[in-house]
Amino acid sequence: LSRDFLPRGSGIVTRRPLILQLIFSKTEYAEFLHCKSKKFTDFDEVRQEIEAETDRVTGTNKGISPVPINLRVYSPHVLNLTLIDLPGITKVPVGDQPQDIEFQIRDMILQFISRESSLILAVTPANMDLANSDALKMAKEVDPQGLRTIGVITKLDLMDEGTDARDVLENKLLPLRRGYIGVVNRSQKDIDGKKDIRAALAAERKFFLSHPAYRHMAERMGTPHLQRVLNQQLTNHIRETLPSLRSKLQSQLLSLEKEVEEYKNFRPDDPTRKTKALLQMVQQFGVDFEKRIEGSGDQVDTLELSGGARINRIFHERFPFELVKMEFDEKDLRREISYAIKNIHGVRQTGLFTPDLAFEAIVKKQVVKLKEPCLKCVDLVIQELINTVRQCTSKLGSYPRLREETERIVTTHIREREGKTKDQILLLIDIELSYINTNHEDFIGFANAQQRNTQTNKKRAIPNQVIRRGWLTINNISIMKGGSKEYWFVLTAESLSWYKDEEEKEKKYMLPLDNLKIRDVEKGFMSNKHVFAIFNTEQRNVYKDLRQIELACDSQEDVDSWKASFLRAGVYPEKDQTESEDGAQENTFSMDPQLERQVETIRNLVDSYVAIINKSIRDLMPKTIMHLMINNTKDFIHSELLAYLYSSADQGSLMEESAEQAQRRDEMLRMYHALKEALGIIGDISTSTVSTPVPPPVDDTWLQ
C-alpha cells in the first residue's frame, strides 16, 4: 500500500480486530464503516481515527474488545485483498485489562482463524524461539493439515551477530506445509524519524540481497513477495469457487425469471392491467380459502393445523368435551329429582307411582344447559374462519386497500351469518324441548330403568384398545427426585402407561383409569407449557407420593386433544365445586326407600334420554354450522365478493400499489440485471488463470 496508517507503539497497540479491505481503484482514499459518508485522503487522519475508535469502545487504559473496526482502502497500488489485524497474545494484564486477558484474546483470534476461507499469517519474531510460537500453535489447532498457514518471520535484522534464520526460511529446521517468508519492517526509530515506506521496502530488498545467508533466496523473501503469495492464494480460491458461484447465480436468475416477466413491460397506470390483476386476486383468494377449509394436497402447512383441520378439531374434540363438561353432578341431580317428585305430590304423601312430570322437568333443565357449549362452538368456528380469511388475504399485501376491503367485506358477512347460525342452533334446542319423545328406539323406557344400574349405562371402549400415544411431560416431580421429565404415554381404555421412549420397551408405570378425573391447572409463571392434571376421586395417591400428576403439552390444542382422548377412555373432567356449605349439608338428607327407588328410576331415564339428545346435537351441530356459515361464506366469496368490492370503492384506489411493492419491484429488476451482468463477467474470465498446486504435507510434529 506504501502508506503508513496503522498505529504503532510499545505494549499492546491493536486492541480491537481491524478488518482491512484493500480494493483496487484509480483514486486513493479510505473510508470507515462507522462513518461511511466521510472519505479520508490523509492517512495520518486514518491512524488517528483508528486510535479514537479503539478508545471509544475499549477506553484509554489498554482495554480490549472483540468488536471489529472495518476499514476500506481504495488505491491503484493494491491487490484486492481482505486482511484482518488481530491483537497479539498478552500473558500479563496491564491497565484496565481483565485477569483472563490471555484467554479473551485467544478466543477472539480463534473466532477469526477458524473460518475455512481464511488464510492464517502466523507472525513470529526471528529473535524468539520458534518452537514456542503461540501464533503457530494456535494455527495448528484450527488448521492441522497446514493448508491455510503461512509462517512470517520478522526482525531478521535484529538477530544476534553470527546467527541467522536460514534453516527456518528454507523450511528445513521447523517445517510448515506452506513454508516461511521473511520480512524486515521499519524500527521504532525509523517510524519516529518518519522514514518513508518506499524507502523501507528498498532497504528491505537491499538487506536480503546483501546478506550472505539470505542472498540465494532473496526473490522469495520480503513484503512484495508476501503480497504476491497472498494474491495467488486469492486467485486459487476464486478459481475453486467459480463453478459453484456460477451455478448459484444461474439458479437465482431462474427463480427471478418468472416474477420479472410480469414487470418487464410494467405500466403502473394501465387500467386493463389493474382489472386483470383485481379479477385474478379475488379468484385466487376464493381458491385459497376453499383449499384451507376443504384441505388440499398442494402447499400443505406442516408446522401447525390451519383452517378446515382446526374446525374439524373443534367439531369432534373440543365440542364433545364441552358437552361432557356439562354432565350433571350426581348428588345435585339426585337432590333435584327428589325435590321435583316431592313438589309434584305436594301436600300428599309420596305416591306409589313414579311421576312422568318429574322426568320431563329434569330433562328440560338438562337440555337447556346445552345452549352454552353450542354457542361457544359457533364462536370458536367463527374465530377460525376469520383467521383463515386473514391468512388468505396476506397474498393481497401488495395492494393494502384491496386487502383491507376484502377482509372487511368477508368478515362482515361471517358476522351476519353468525346471528342466523346461532338462531338456528337455539331453534334446534327449543325443538328438543318442545316434545320429549319417550318412544325413541334408543330410550330405555320405564320398565328397564327400574332394573338398570347407573354404572352399566357407561359404555367403555374395548379393554385393550389403544386410544392415543404421544409425548407428555410430568410437570410436578420435585427437583430432588429428578425434576419434570418427558415420557412416551400410551392411553388405552383401561390404563395410562408411560415409557422412557417411543420404542415402548422400558415401562416406567401403569396407572389404572378407575376413579380418575381430569382437572385444569393454571399455566406456571414464565412457563410456555400448557398443563392439565389427573387425580383420584377417592383421595388416593395417583403416582408414588403424588395426589395428582400434572401433564404438560406444548400447546393448548394438544391439551384439548388429550382431554378428548381421556373422555373416550371414560376419564371425565372434574366438576366446579361452587356449592355453599349450606348446600353441602343439605346433600346429606335422608330419603325413604320408596322415594329412593323413584329417584333411581328417573335418574336412569334422564341419563338415557340426555344421551340421545347429546348424540343428536353432536351430529347436527357440525352440519348446521357447515351449511349456514362455512358453505355459505364460500359461495359468497365466489359469487358476490367482486360485486361488493366494486361497489365499495373505485378500481383505481383498490389497486393502488403499496410503497413496499413498488420498491420490491425495482429491487427485483435491479437484482435481475446485476445477476445477468455477474454471469457475463464470470463467462469472460479466462479459465486458464495460473494457479499453484497445494504443497505436499511436511512433518510438523514439532508443533505438538
TrEMBL record:
Residues 1-243 form the Dynamin-type G domain. InterPro entries: Dynamin, Dynamin_GTPase, Dynamin_GTPase_CS, Dynamin_N, Dynamin_stalk, G_DYNAMIN_dom, GED, GED_dom. It catalyses: GTP + H2O = GDP + phosphate + H(+). It holds the Pfam family GED. Keywords: Acetylation, Cell junction, Cell projection, Coated pit, Cytoplasm, Cytoplasmic vesicle, Cytoskeleton, Endocytosis, Endosome, GTP-binding, Hydrolase, Membrane, Microtubule, Motor protein, Nucleotide-binding, Phagocytosis, Synapse, Synaptosome. Gene3D superfamilies: Dynamin, middle domain, P-loop containing nucleotide triphosphate hydrolases, Pleckstrin-homology domain (PH domain)/Phosphotyrosine-binding domain (PTB). One of its GO terms (molecular function) is GTP binding. Belongs to the TRAFAC class dynamin-like GTPase superfamily. Dynamin/Fzo/YdjA family. This is Dynamin-2. It comes from Scytalopus superciliaris. The lineage of its organism: Eukaryota, Metazoa, Chordata, Craniata, Vertebrata.
